[in-house]
């Protein structure tokens, strides 16, 4: 185990990266990312960019070497061994992500180990709905299906008139779209968007300007980009009015 601990490397220049990130002294900005494949690497690097302290763990020595000067710490370790995780002190991190992809057994065992160790906020990547259900039953606090979620999102963008689409678990969505003609030229309180379409306009962006928070007095103009929320079917139907 001493060799595994010895493999932990401190990222060069991490103080510089943290200095450019927003100060969040009230939060414990430490996170463990288990699995340094494409998803885990992308996540870990973005967290580093935001000033977080990232412990990367992988059983592939090549990946560990590849990230030793990128992440705060990198460890060559078998995360399916609960005792290894305990010695690494992963349970002391307030957050952890199991980013293991195709190795479903390793994903399940690692998730179980982290939960047993008492990690307070655990995200786990799933490669299928069945895999996700198993992780949920184990007690994972958040289950991520990146391929499925991205495919569903792109399908909405390709087949509809939306500029962006985010759906939440409870059949609720957030959509960015061009304002339909029926909503323009009058305050939102008079256009009847919520009454007629069952959606709420929360933001408006004029060409060449930044988004602003929408109020009942906000007047939407032709060509404005708006952000609306509501039930998925309702926002989909509303976007088709564009």
UniProtKB/TrEMBL annotation:
Tell me which PROSITE patterns the record gives.
RCK_C, RCK_N
Q: Where is this region: Disordered?
A: 1-26
Where on the tree of life does the source sit, at the highest rank?
Bacteria
GO terms, molecular function:
monoatomic cation transmembrane transporter activity
Which residues belong to any copy of the RCK N-terminal domain?
28-150
What are the GO BP annotations of this UniProt entry? potassium ion transport
Q: Which residues lie in Basic residues bias regions?
A: 7-17
The record places domain RCK C-terminal at 160-242
- What PANTHER family does the annotation carry? KTR SYSTEM POTASSIUM UPTAKE PROTEIN C (PTHR43833:SF7), POTASSIUM CHANNEL PROTEIN 2-RELATED-RELATED (PTHR43833)
Q: What is the name of this protein? A: TrkA family potassium uptake protein
Task: Supply the source organism for this entry.
Answer: Streptomyces mimosae
